[in-house]
Automatic annotation (TrEMBL):
Domain Fumarylacetoacetase-like C-terminal: 213-352
InterPro entries assigned: FAH (IPR051121), Fumarylacetoacetase-like_C (IPR011234), Fumarylacetoacetase_C_sf (IPR036663)
GO MF annotations in UniProt: hydrolase activity
Pfam annotation, one family: FAA_hydrolase
Annotated keywords: Hydrolase, Metal-binding
UniProt protein name: Fumarylacetoacetate hydrolase family protein
Gene3D superfamilies for this protein: Fumarylacetoacetase-like, C-terminal domain (3.90.850.10)
Keyword Metal-binding among UniProt keywords: yes
The keyword Cell division is annotated on this UniProt entry: no
Native source species: Sphingomonas natans
Length: 384
């Protein structure tokens, strides 16, 4: 997709050339991991044929690789390679209901049975009763248990409140490996969804041992009608063709960027419709109910991810402003351009289409292995 042209404005603000970034591009030979150092992109496929390998061997500490040129120049020309999602073999997980506002909105979806027209009345009632208390309570604490007991007595308890303030976070698998979309790609909404929205989030990338190595931006597309009808429809609501966008790059943790920067981040969202519609929103990571380290630890506690794992941390953004009919709130229209940005991670830009109309996912793990073998990149000597 060449609707958008990548430029330096899509990189983090300030002196971004001081930091290290992991990415992937589509070359004539096939998908290729790149490392960006001092603003220069390097083809590191001879060192690490996948981005998962690069993390495994900490490839950014080794020889840089083959010089491709300044990253903004590499990606802006007429013959520029496609910028892919920076992830390949990593499992993509997501933590849900990690902000108080999103918890209330999930309860609204449940109570309204996925009906956008019924949401406003439910929202007013829930906000009046639990808005303040749920924002101040620490998940898994004695105060949270007391609030739960009170809400059960009043018949207001919900499975979404359980994961919002209970001891266990909601963690689910968002997308199969190799299926995520990159910067500039079309992102898919199910064609039979009538109430949906983007979810602007930060992802943490961790190695096979659960050690966080960096962060990036993502869009964990949300189908409010499907999940609202039943939480058992979460898989159908979340995992569809082209329904997960990630990028533009993973910013690696170093002396210029750390988990504390993730905790302090402000994630901005801009939706621009072909009809002139415009909606802006902001998520402050300072308002997250569960610390990123805790969410990552819960993800890794009873499972192994030998090729690493990427974890969506959740979003504060839940658009309630009416787009068309009064009381129906926001939902996407085809052609919407979604821009997710934060000063420390840059900008992720995607255009909305349906999952049926988006380019089908046809390049799987066996295709990747055959491609890498054909390029003679699978020799142990090429993997650190």
């Amino acid at each position: 997709m060449k609707d958008f042209v990548f430029s330096a404005s899509d990189m983090p603000e300030g002196d971004w050339r001081r930091s290290l970034y992991l990415g992937r591009i589509e070359t004539a030979a096939g998908p290729t991991p790149i490392l960006i150092r001092d603003g220069i992109a390097y083809d590191v496929s001879r060192i690490a044929p996948t981005s998962a390998d690069l993390v495994r061997i900490r490839g950014w500490r080794k020889t840089a690789g083959t010089v491709l040129g300044p990253i903004e120049t590499l990606l802006s020309g007429a013959q520029a390679p496609t910028l892919l999602s920076p992830l390949d073999l990593q499992c993509v997980k997501a933590a849900g209901v990690t902000f108080a506002v999103s918890a209330i909105e999930r309860v609204i979806e449940e109570r309204a049975r996925g009906d956008a027209a019924a949401a406003a009345a439910v929202r007013d009632r829930l906000e009046a009763r639990i808005g303040g208390s749920i924002r101040s309570v620490v998940p898994g604490s004695e105060d949270a248990a007391a609030l739960k007991a009170t809400l059960i007595e009043e018949g207001m308890w919900s499975q979404y409140l359980e994961v919002a303030i209970g001891p266990d976070a909601e963690v689910f698998t968002k997308a199969p490996i190799l299926s995520t979309m990159g910067w500039g790609a079309e992102i898919g909404i199910r064609s039979d969804s009538s109430w949906n929205n983007p979810e602007p989030e930060i992802l943490i990338l961790a190695d096979r041992d659960g050690v966080a190595v960096g962060a990036t931006l993502g869009n964990d597309v949300n189908l409010r009608d499907f999940e609202g009808r039943s939480a058992l429809l979460l898989g159908k609501a979340k995992d569809n063709n082209a329904s997960c966008a990630i990028g533009p790059f993973v910013r690696l943790f170093d002396e210029t960027f750390s988990m504390d920067d993730v905790r302090a981040a402000q994630v901005d969202l801009l939706i621009e419709g072909t009809d002139g519609y415009r909606l802006a929103g902001t998520s402050s990571m300072a308002q997250i109910s569960r610390d990123p380290d805790n969410l990552l630890a819960q993800t890794m506690s009873e499972h192994q991810y030998p090729d690493g794992v990427a974890l969506f941390l959740g979003t504060l953004f839940a658009p309630v402003e009416d787009r068309d009919d009064p009381g129906r709130g926001f939902t996407h229209k085809m052609g919407d351009v979604v821009t997710i940005s934060t000063p420390t991670l840059g900008r992720l830009v995607n255009r909305v289409t349906t999952s049926k109309e988006a380019a089908p996912w046809t390049f799987g793990v066996s295709d990747l292995m055959r491609n890498l073998a054909g390029r003679q990149l699978l020799s142990p000597t090429n993997q650190g």
